[in-house]
UniProtKB/TrEMBL annotation:
It comes from the Bacteria. The gene is phnC. Residues 2-246 form the ABC transporter domain. Gene3D superfamilies: P-loop containing nucleotide triphosphate hydrolases. It comes from Ketogulonicigenium vulgare (strain WSH-001). This is Phosphonate ABC transporter, ATPase subunit. It is an enzyme of class 3 (hydrolase). One of its GO terms (cellular component) is membrane. It holds the Pfam family ABC_tran. Its EC number is 3.6.3.28. SUPFAM superfamilies: P-loop containing nucleoside triphosphate hydrolases. NCBIfam families: ABC_phnC.
Amino acid sequence: MLDVTRLSKTYRTGDQALSDVSFSLPQGQVVGLIGPSGAGKSTLIRCINRLVAPTTGSVKLNGIELTTLNARDLRKARRRIGMIFQEYALVERLSVMENVLSGRLGYVPFWRSFTRRFPGHDIARAFQLLDRVGLAQHADKRADALSGGQRQRVGIARALEQDPELLLVDEPTASLDPRTSRQIMRLITEICRESGLPAIVNIHDVVLAQAFTDRIIGLRAGRIVFDGPPSALSHDVLTTIYGEEDWNAMRKGTAEQQDAEAEADAAMQVLAAQ
Ligand SMILES: Nc1ncnc2c1ncn2[C@@H]1O[C@H](COP(=O)(O)OP(=O)(O)OP(=O)(O)O)[C@@H](O)[C@H]1O
C-alpha cells in the first residue's frame, strides 16, 4: 500500500512542479499517470523513490515514511521499489540472466555483487521470472541481441527480481511499436494483479492507459485534476487535463495511428492468405 499525502515540490528555480498531491494505492492496483508535458509526472515518480526530495508532504510505503529516511535506510527502502524505464536501462554486454540478477544487487554482500555470484534461490527466481515474461530460452543471450520488446521484458523481470512492494514505471512503451506496447502493458498489469503489486505507470498514450490500467490519475500544472476509473475519462475530463488544443491534437494523432495500424493489419492478412 502506498500513501501519498499533501506532496508538494518546488525546485530551486522556483518551478512549482507538484502542489498538494494526495492519493493512496492499494495492493495490486495499476494506476496510469497522465498529463501534458511539464505537468509533474516525472517529479511525482522521483519524489516517491526520493531521487528528488519533496518540499513538503508524506510518502508512506507499507507504513514506512520515505521522505525522512537517512541514506542507509533509504537504500534499503529503494530495494523495495522496482523501476521500469523507457530505455530499459540494461547492461547491454551482459546476458539476459545477469541483467535480471542485477535486481538482487541491493541485497547481496558487496563481494558477491563484485564477483556476480548470486545465491541459488536468486537464480531459481530469475529463471522463474524469465519464464513468466516469455524469455526463458533467451537467458544466456546478450541483452544487446534482443528486440526492444524483449529488452523491456528483461527490465520487467529485473524489477520483479528485486521482490518489490511497489513498481514505478516510467514511459514503458515510448520506444516500442503499438503492438509491442500493448503486449508490454498487458504483461505489466497481469503481473501486478496476480502478485498484488501496486504500480504507477507514467504514460503518454491515453488509449493504452485507458485499455490496461485500473485507475487514472490526471495531473495538470502539478495538481491532480482527475482521479478515477478509465471509463470516466470523458472528452471533458481529457480537455481539463490536457487543454482543448492539445487534447484535440492528441485525438487526431491517435485516430491516424489507429487507421495506419488497421491498414497494416489488413495488408498482413492479405499476405498471409497468399
Ligand atoms: N530538475 C529540475 N529543476 C527545475 N525545474 C524542474 C526540474 N525538473 C522538472 N522541473 C520543472 O517541473 C515541472 C514538472 O516537470 P516534470 O518533468 O515533472 O513534468 P512531466 O509531466 O514529467 O513532463 P514530461 O511529460 O515532459 O516528461 C516543469 O515545469 C519542469 O520545468
